[in-house]
Amino acid sequence: MSRSPANQPPARGPVVLALPFAGRWLAGNSPARRVPSHGTDLLGERYAIDFTGVDDRGRTAASRDWGTYVGTEPPERFFAYGRAILAPAAGVVVEAFDGEVDHPARRSQLALVPYALGQVARLRAGVGAIAGNHIVIELVGGAGFLALVHLRAGSIRVRPGDTVNQGQPLAECGNSGNSTQPHLHLQVMDSPDLSIARGLPLAFRRYREWPAGAKHPVLRDVGIPGEGATVEPLPS
Fold first, then answer.
1. What are the start-end ranges of the H helices in the chain?
2. Does 5 reside within a domain?
3. Is residue 208 part of a domain?
4. What's the pLDDT score for residue 136?
5. How many domains does the chain divide into?
């Protein structure tokens, strides 16, 4: 029997994860700002969060050119592209999809218009066209299913059935699927099937957070990064 993603599961505590990377990353579409965080309950996205790799100055890329303002840019220009994505918790891989290319990046509003017009076609094309290259992990203890999305083409190191440990390298950050700039999309769900999954609350442990506009970081034992905050995992 099918079910509607809008029918949310009963309230429960968040699934607490480690941040799935090293270095500094910018949080976007955070459930700390609003729920559903991405404006929809479809595809298990209710509590999803995005992370974009940045440098110590908070930049997503080191350079700009004409493509930044009126066209597209190579994904390799961005700090996030190719960075290692680590397992944020232990579990078993139930899906590892690697069949989508990495798109040119789009920071230009002009380039975003035709991309947005293609959204309906991507939805019709199915989960792969939206999620791009992705991994789904069944978390230990029945905590749910974790999805890591928009991974770099050819970078996935695991296969269904593999057991993974927290901190294990799984893939690299990419720009596949419904992505306009290299970043990682992460969510926890009640099903491995994104087409019917319902999102579950999540949080992260032991990280340093620079709230948007702040000069000094705050140490978090457990929390959800704020919108526009820069985060960095603390040593374990």
1. 66-70, 109-117, 119-125, 127-131
2. no
3. yes
4. 99
5. 1
Distance CA 88, CA 136 (A): 12
Domain contains 206? yes
Nearest CA to 106 out of 156, 35, 178 is that of 178
Convert the pLDDT of each residue in 108-165 to its tens digit.
766 665 666 566 666 666 787 899 999 999 999 999 999 999 999 999 999 999 999 9
- Say how many residues make up the chain: 236
Domain of residue 35: give its range. Answer: 15-233
Q: Where are the alpha helices (DSSP H) in 134-174?
A: none
**What's the burial of 47, exposed, middle or buried (CB within 10 Å: 0-12/13-18/19+)?**
buried
User: Looking at residue 80, which CATH number applies to its domain?
Assistant: 2.70.70.10
Judged against a pLDDT cut of 50, whether residue 210 lies above it is answered with: yes
Name the phi and psi angles at 146, rounded to 5.
-105, 130
In a domain, 99, yes or no: yes
